[in-house]
Amino acid sequence: MPDVAVVGFAQAPNVRSTPGTTNGVEMLVPIFAEVLERTGLSKEDIGFWCSGSSDYLAGRAFSFIAAVDAIGAFPPIHESHVEMDAAWALYEAWLKIRMGEVETALVYGFGKSSAGQLRRVLALQMDPYVVAPLWPDSVSVAGIQARLGLEAGLWSEKDLAEVAARSRADATGNPAAQVSGTVEVADLLDAPYFADPLRAHDIAPVTDGAAVLVLASAERAADLVDSPAVITGIEHRVDSPALGVRDLTRSPSTAAAGRALDLDGVELAELHAPFTHQELILRDALGLGEQVRINPSGGVLTGNPMFSAGLARIGEAANHILDGSARKTLAHATSGPVLQQNLVATLEVLS
Amino acid sequence: MADLAVKSRTCFTQTVSAPELPLSAPLNVGFDYTRSVGPVLGRFVNALRERRVEGVRGSDGRVHVPPLEYDPVTAEALSEFVPVASEGEIVSWSWIAEPLDGQPLSRPFAWALVKLDGADTAILHAVDAGSPSNVHTGQRVRVRWAEETVGHIRDIAYFVPADGPDTEPTEAPPPVAKREENAPVSVVITPIHLRYEHSASPEESRYLRGLAEGKLIGQRCPSCEKVYIPPRGACPTDGVPTTDEVELPDTGIVTTFCIVNVPFLGQKIKPPYVAAYILLDGADIAFLHLVLGCDAADVRMGMRVRAAWKPRDEWWTSLENIGHFAPTGEPDAPYESFAHHL
Ligand SMILES: [Zn+2]
């Protein structure tokens, strides 16, 4: 089976709100053009298209269909969609290339989180019989998770603020970031609680955005870019949807996905952690030591476009291979409430 | 998440201060999440109706509350029900200072995982505690039952401190459950109401503002030069936004049509009537509208039609400004002239 490589990545600016439509066309058209130009491909060269987005974010049925206009989908294309973060759309595209059905694929994700009330809309990801009818918002549920670790002594409020401060400082180098800058941990800890025990800096900002990534078989990739980022491993696992069953201070599904991969020699990791404490859970689950640089892009605490943020982690991790600044990187994506579903990938220089 | 089956309503209003911005308007979506409960959740909600809590025993001996249909370890179907107390302790919690629509309380409260006595796993629910200083992990709490129980998770209105008095429920959307007289609850209904700010694309906004002035504005794709009305955020052939504005006449032809004979909910016109694809003169895409003003049986492919506009004082940013299309009496367009628009 052919290896699969990332050959291009582009993302729309991560912003608090856009005046655009919920079908993402305005955000997608420029980044499609950007990624195609960078890879020298035209839309006719793309064998398979796959996207991740959500009708609940858009507030209308089959919202992803309108986004297909951004592709220029005539003559007819080979297209699919997942109602999850587009990292899972990437998984589907990766399979298509591995199976030899296509040589190239373009994966995209988009979301206009600002159209509705994001943390309330996300309650509908929960069990529809005994949880969702209570409308538990995503921030409150993450707060319950954070307190479990605080009271067990697994992390402190200062540890969480340090994650936020480091993320914002790193994001100063990321032109797409929504939030960036130098902040003192002590100042962050002086801020009031938003959802005790979480403060605003512990919570990824509401973000509109989109991301696109081009995959190619390793053979084809070598013709397209100097240094393709080969996906040497990709695994995803899921934990029980029953919140009260899980030990929320751990992420067994991330750990299981990580165990199935060879993580030796990973130089940096892009982790999809929409809350500060979740970065600590993920680092632990993946056994990432001090030598691994975490979220050099600033991570999703500095911009969290729903349904493309996980895909963007893979893109950011790939960029370090594409530009020659790393030889092995790790990307993680999550979907669902409090790290329910997790995908981990390793990317390496084509050998 | 599943696709939305929605009843939605939206109307566009022009923003006076910033007319160049795309039009946007509130979009309120509502539907009833209707689900059959099955044997496990059915037992749970029917017990709630009787103000009792039941869990289910898993393969590892743990008692799950709420009950799980399938074991989280072995995935086997579970069926050994275990009554548990309606009192227990807080495992963890967070505080919500400004509750959101639909939540169990409209005054500030704690979200908590509560492990009921006799259970090994925790249930997520609300605790009415007044302030975060009145909540702590390990705190004893008990169920505050709804005034009327119907067989739904919201029969547990919320929890209160175990040694405290009942507090007054704040208004919550009523949970609904279906059952035959004297029969157990088999279906639960959860009303879902979501509020959005819906935005039209810049191209659609130009078109909608044109309609408010009685103009039909299409836009041309800069690449393939096709004229779209309504204009598109991106040409479906070329993937580039349509740009050049083209004002189109209100005359055109019927490309294809159907005669509606079936009555349905929300129907505004008495059947039979004709819904048709209208291709305006100069446009490259047809849109759906009504053809009235003649017998339904007389409508034909290629028939020439003209817009019947509503009175000017009823115009707004909507294609509803055209009440319908009516035959002009001109000779039909030849089939070849519209064959590639079908
Ligand atoms: Zn075109």
TrEMBL record, chain A:
GO MF, one annotated term: acyltransferase activity, transferring groups other than amino-acyl groups
SUPFAM superfamilies noted in UniProt: Thiolase-like
Gene3D superfamilies the UniProt entry points to: 3.40.47.10
InterPro entries: Thiolase, Thiolase-like
Keyword vocabulary terms for this entry: Transferase
UniProt keyword Endoplasmic reticulum present: no
Domain of life of the source: Bacteria
NCBIfam families, per the entry: PRK07937.1
Name of this chain's protein: Acetyl-CoA acetyltransferase
Organism encoding this protein: Amycolatopsis umgeniensis
